[in-house]
Design goal:
GO molecular function: kinase activity
Keywords: Kinase, Transferase
Number of domains: 1
Number of helices: 8
Pfam family, one: APH
InterPro entries: AGP_Transferase, Aminoglycoside_PTrfase, Kinase-like_dom_sf
Distance between the termini: 45 Å
Shape: globular
CATH topology: Aminoglycoside 3'-phosphotransferase, Chain: A, domain 2
Radius of gyration: 18 Å
Helix content: 40-55%
CATH architecture: Alpha-Beta Complex
Number of strands: 10
Largest sheet: 5 strands, antiparallel
CATH class: Alpha Beta
Structural class: alpha+beta
Amino acid sequence: MVVAHSERATLRVGDVFLKVDSDQARIGVEVEAMALAPVPTPKVLWHKPPVLAIAAVPGTALGRLGEPSTASPAAWAAAGAAIRRLHDAPLPPRLGRAGRGLDELAADLDGECEWLVTNGVLPADLVTRNRQIAEAALRPWAPVFTHGDLQIDHVFIDGDEITGIIDWSEAGQGDALFDLAILTLGHEENLDDVVAGYGTDVDLDVIRAWWSLRSLLGVRWLSEHGFDPFAPGCEIDVLRSARARLP
């Protein structure tokens, strides 16, 4: 078992990953996105609802949230270059996770902030300061082809080369800086290398805003699905680091 929660499960059998998901639309998005993406993706072996079988990609993950990455600066830059190729590709037909409307996103953010404070999960000051930082992400953006869940352990490398990007179920039209932010969440020290590989002007304040926004939105979901946002280097530490950067 690789990962399992109430929405889906992923199992590994040898060099084959079996993704079990009752939401066939989500599986369909993943298959379609992998076919369209101009970056290395897993090979689809077969698809028999509710199971999608894909081949393992070679190499190792770029890193893990909460752990120092041992990948080279060149590997991080290669990840940035791969993301740029994706973002420059023709738009997929539907909105993805990174394409949520600003009003919906702001309402969800306000609701989660209220829940965090009301339930005593986090200090009000920590939530308020990060809510202020997150505001910069709530701005108009031009849609690009986004992965939508570009966590560091979804990018695989062999040396300094990208060998595969996995887990495309949230892909679609969205905000380019969302992808860059999710990849570098908890790994701020690698942001400059990613941006260098990406090869264009990037608003770093918006990326930092997405770090705060993503972490604020994720605490409750992670806690309710068996993950620990309080683990060292994870979402709560990201929020604390963001507050520390403020004057």
